[in-house]
Amino acid sequence: MTDVTLVGMGRQPEPHKRSELLEKAVDYVLENGLQGLSLRPLARRLGTNARMLIYHFESKEKLITEVLQAAQARQRALLQGLSGGAADPYAALEAFWRWFTSPRMAPFARLLYEVEVGAMQGQHEYRSFARQAIHGWIGFVLQGLPGSTPAQASLIVGTIAGLLLDWLITGEEERVNAAFGAFLEVLRKGGLA
Predict the structure, then answer these.
(1) Are 193 and 177 in contact (CB under 8 A)?
(2) Cα–chain-centroid distance for residue 138?
(3) N or C end of the chain: smaller count of CB under 10 Å?
(4) Mind listing the pLDDT tens digit for each residue in 94-124?
């Protein structure tokens, strides 16, 4: 009996296999990005075939949505590991910058920008994810800098996002880190008022 026959006969779902495929798909997307993502090469890399990916995830769009959600969950878990509780909120912001510009986090940053560009181009499957990511970062800043307003948090997130994009494009770590340091100094001297 072939897989097609089994699927047609009501083959029982295998949740562990689905979870395994999803984790491997996240690894693949973090390494290769979403642009030009095709099910056949993805399936080959995961040790399966495109038909089985559709069986487990229903469609390419649903697979991408789940991959983005799983990547976001991984990033949140890594963020939880970031040492918090610094008495100086600006030191915490600096620690966050060092964390987010680390080689370990670069694939997450590249994926975030790819999704944001897709959202700007009208790809509806990326729009809600991109908005959620932006609001998540704003919430993170609001929590880390008590007394800040959403507008101030948006300014901080926008500045960090711009500097992060600069770093990813140019690779000029020293200059971009110096720019972040200058931004942090402005914040320290003038506060958020």
Answers:
(1) no
(2) 15
(3) C
(4) 988 998 899 889 999 999 999 999 999 988 8
